[in-house]
Amino acid sequence: MSSPQTTARAVGIALGVLADAAFGDPRRGHPVAVFGSWAGRLEQRIYRPTRQRGVLYTVVAAGVPVVVTAGLDRLVRRRPVLSAGLTALATWTALGGTSLAREGAMMAVALESGQLPRARELLTHLCARDPSRLEPPELARATVESLAENASDAVVAPLFWAAVAGPAGVIGYRAINTLDAMVGYRSERYERFGWAAARADDVVNLLPSRLTALLTMASAPMVHGSVGQAWKVWRRDRNRHPSPNAGQCEASAAGALGVRLGGTNVYQGQVDSRPVMGEGNRLPEVSDVRRAVTLGRCVGLLSAGVSVVAVLGFAWFAPGRRGWSGRASGRTT
C-alpha cells in the first residue's frame, strides 16, 4: 500500500501535468525566468574563464533552489495536501510541453501560409540555430529536430526527476538545464566556464533521453509510423549525434516520422555539420512539423502516465512496505 507521501507525490505530478496542459508557461514572472535573472547576476560576480569557477557557479546556482525546495518539502511532508501542492507547483514550473507544442503549431501555420520571415523568427524560440538564410525545408528540419530533442528537456526529464526525487529533484533538473542554456555552449567566454553546466546537463539527461527514445518509438503508430522502423534507426544512428542525449531523441523521431534528419547548421556564425539520421532521402516537409507536434504530445502523455505509475508502483513493491512479498512490513519472526 502506498504511503500518504507517495500518493501526494503521484497526485502532485498529475496536477502539474494538468496545469501545464491548461495554462502553459506564464507570460510574465515565470519562475525559470526569475531564476535566470538571478543566475545571470551570480555569474557576473563569480565569472572567471576557468573550469574551477564554472564548477563553483554551477554548484551554487543549482544548489540554492534545490536546498530551498528540499526545505519546503520537509516542512510540508506530513501534510499530504500541501505536499501534493508543492510537487504540482514544482512540476508545472519545470514542464514546457504545452508551450513547445504551441511553438511547433505556430511554425506549421507560418510555413503553410508562406510567411517566411515569421517562420524564421519562430525558430529562434525553439533553438539557437541561425535562421536568417534558411528556406522552408531547412526550417521544417530544424523544427522537427528541436521538437524531438526538447521532448526530453521540456517534458520527459522533468517528469522523470519529479518521480525519482520529488520537488527538489525536478527543480534541480530545471536549474541545471537552464544553466546549460545560459553558459553551456561553446564560445570564447564560456569554453571553460560553461564546461561544468554542460556536463551536469549531460548527466541529468542521460536516462530521460533514452526513455524519451523508447516513448517515441511507442508513439510512432500515432503519426502513421512504424515502431520497428523507429527502433532500427535509433539503434543504428543514436550515437552519430555529437550530443550523447540529443541523438537518442532525434534518431528515434527520424525513424518514427520516416524522415532524414541532420545536415549543416549554423550557430552564431559557426558552421556545424551533423551526420545524417534516418532512412532514405526524404527531408521533413511542412506536414511533418505537425506530425512532430503530435508525436511530442503522445510522448508527453505516455511520460506522465509512466511517472505516476512508477511512483505508485515503487511504493507498492518497495522492500519493507506492504505489498512486497505479501506482508513484508507486518511479518514477524
TrEMBL record:
NCBIfam families: cobal_cbiB, PRK01209.1-4. InterPro entries: Cobalamin_biosynth_CobD/CbiB (IPR004485). PANTHER family: COBALAMIN BIOSYNTHESIS PROTEIN CBIB. Keywords: Cell membrane, Cobalamin biosynthesis, Membrane, Transmembrane, Transmembrane helix. Coiled coil: none annotated. The chain crosses the membrane at residues 54-72, 298-318. Converts cobyric acid to cobinamide by the addition of aminopropanol on the F carboxylic group. This is Cobalamin biosynthesis protein CobD. HAMAP family: CobD_CbiB. It is found in: Cell membrane. Pathway: Cofactor biosynthesis; adenosylcobalamin biosynthesis. It is a multi-pass membrane protein. Belongs to the CobD/CbiB family. Its main location: membrane. It comes from the Bacteria. It holds the Pfam family CobD_Cbib. The gene is cobD. The keyword Transmembrane helix applies.
